[in-house]
Amino acid sequence: MASNTAIMGNLPSGIGICTTIPDILYLPELIFGGLVWILVACTLVVPHNPQGWVMFVSIFCFTMTFIWLVVFAIGWHRNKGLWATADVAYHGIAAFFYLSASVALAKVTLEMDDGTNSRNYKLDVSAVVFSYVATLLYFIHTILSAMRWKSF
């Protein structure tokens, strides 16, 4: 059961990141972000620009979330107020990036529904769904991190 102590001003470290709110969202963010990355990488990259943006966002957010997870797990966050602010900023930027990537991916996916390549279409539809789920997870993490930040 997740505890409410993270919202009251404590930044967890060690195994505490797996049991506190909003830090419990790191693992689902990594899972859904990784799925977007894998599914988009499996499809034909046409058109290049929107798909390239989706790949950049998914790889960037996956990598940064993993680094963020390691920083909290190891306990490198000494200045709690600064790290709480950075946590809100990062997750807000990630939510915005994922929203823009989700919209671009949905537009490309809708345009490619011509019935010729149903495998790529199905993969892109799955990537769109997972991208919106990742967007929602990052948005919720931003809100909960902002609540924690306000308590400092």
UniProtKB/TrEMBL annotation:
Origin superkingdom: Eukaryota
Keywords for this protein: Membrane, Transmembrane, Transmembrane helix
Listed GO MF terms: structural constituent of myelin sheath
Any single biological process term in GO: myelination
Keyword Magnesium: no
Keyword Transmembrane helix applies: yes
GO CC annotation: membrane
Domain MARVEL: 17-150
Subcellular location: Membrane
Membrane-spanning residues: 24-46, 52-76, 88-106, 126-147
Membrane topology: Multi-pass membrane protein
Protein name in UniProt: MARVEL domain-containing protein
